[in-house]
Amino acid sequence: MTLTAGVVAVQGDVSEHAEAVRRAGEVHGRETEVREIRTSGTVPDCDLLLLPGGESTTISRLLHDEGIAEEIVAHVEAGKPVLATCAGLIVAATDAGDDRVRNLGVADVTVERNAFGRQKDSFEAPLDVAGLDDPFPAVFIRAPLIGDVGEGVEVLAEWDGRPVAVRDGPVVGTSFHPELTPDSRIHGLGLFDNDGRAVAEDGAEPTPDR
Ligand code: GLN
Question: What is the largest CA-CA distance in the chain?
Answer without folding.
Answer: 47
